[in-house]
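Async update (no meeting this week)

Hi team, since we skipped the sync, here's where things stand on the single-chain job. The sequence we agreed to prioritize is pasted below, unchanged from the tracker. I ran it this morning and attached the output directly underneath so nobody has to dig for it. Comments welcome in thread, and please keep replies under the output.
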Amino acid sequence: MIKIVCKNVILGFLAILIAILVSGTIQTWAANPNLDGDSQPTRIKLNECIADVKEVTAWDEKETLAAAREICAVRQSHAKQKARFLKSLKKLQQEYQDATNHGFDKHLPTAIADSWTIVKSCIDFKEGFTYPHNIALLSVPENVRTSCYSLGSDLVESALFSQK
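Output:
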């Protein structure tokens, strides 16, 4: 009995150790946390936006269509800013991955992880002060993420341009 318990403890310890070693080898820039929450940046087809508007409103066809177009636009903006943020992180990683002077290569994983933390904190902060209803259920999460990804992009891009 004691032998089985010891064996399980040792195997558990080895599993944790392997997990730590494997997670340490994954580059931080490759981590892409899902910060979408209640947003839908991939539902950008007009028929998808119409269906989503109909779920939260009881408007006539004209109002529904107008709102759906707006929702599709804010979703596209969200997707665009998220792509800009990811592109800026990739540029940062490419620019500094081999820069051993001043310890940039060692600071890079932390800087990238911090960039994600800033975007997530921005989202958490803004969503903490919003209580949307009706059509805002669809637009607010998109607008929050658009502005937070833009903030993150501006921050990362400022690091890129300041070194040139």
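Quick observations from my side:
Residues 11-30 have pLDDT under 50 and may be disordered.
The chain has one domain: 30-162.
Reply here if anything looks off.
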